[in-house]
Amino acid sequence: MTRWFHRMFLFFSVVLAIWAIGLFRFIGEIPGRPQTNPAQTDAVVVLTGGDQRLQRGLELLNQGIAKKLLISGVGKGTTLEKLLAQYPGADLGNVAEPTNVIILDEVANTTFTNAVETRRWMEREGFKSMRVVTGNYHLPRSLLIFVHYMPDYLIIPEPVFPKDFQRKKWWSASNSLRLVLVEYNKFLITWLRLKTGAV
User: Fold this and answer.
1) Per CATH, the architecture of 35-164 is what?
2) SS3 for 29?
3) Which pTM value belongs to this model?
4) pLDDT tens for residues 71-112?
5) Directed axis angle between helix 111-125 and helix 139-149, to 10°?
C-alpha cells in the first residue's frame, strides 16, 4: 500500500509539474500589446463573445485592410442594423455598401464551429488570407483550431484587450485568474482532441 501510494504521489506530482510548466508557456502566448502587421488580407473574421471585438473588426474594415468582414457566432435573428446600433460611433465612412461586405454567421456557436464555418465561407469567396479578431486570452486556442482547419491559409492574429482581464497580474485578480485557468484547460482539451482526431 505504501509503495502504491508513493507511486501515485510521484505520478500526480509529475503531471502537476508538467501542467504548471504548460500554464506559464500558455500565458507567454497571450499577447500583451496590439500586434503590428500591416499586411493586407482578404477578410477580417470577428469571433463574437467579448468586448471590443466587433468594434475592432469594423475599424479594420473601414481602414481598407480587407475586402470583407465575417462576424462569426451572432445569435439567430440578428441583423446588421442591430449590431451596428450597438456602436453608434463606429466609422464606416470608407465602406461604400456595408451590407455587401459585412457577413453574419448565425451557425457557429463554439470556437470549433467558428473555424468550420469560416473555412466554408472563405472557400465560397475564394479567399486565402484573414485576420482573426478575438480577446487576447482566447487567441492561443482560437489559432490552434483555425490553423488546424485551415493550414494552407494565411491567418494573422488581431487581439483585443478586455478591460477586465489583466495579463501582467493575472494571478492577483480573481476574474483574470479564472479566465487564464479556464482557457488553459480548454486549450489542453482542444490540443488533445485535435491530436487524437476526436473532433
Assistant:
1) 3-Layer(aba) Sandwich (3.40)
2) helix
3) 0.91
4) 999 988 889 888 888 877 677 878 888 889 999 999 999 999
5) 50
Cell 482581464 belongs to 165
Place of cell 493550414: 151
- Cα separation, 192 vs 19, in Å, equals 14
Helix (H) or strand (E) holding 8: helix 2-29
What sign does the CA torsion over 74, 77, 79, 83 have? negative
Where along the chain do its domains lie?
35-164
* Beta strand pairing call for 102-105 and 66-72: parallel
Encode burial over 150-189: b for 16+ CB neighbours within 10 A, e otherwise: beebebbbbbbbbeebbbeebeeeeebeebbeebbeebee
Residue appearing with cell numbers 469560416? 118
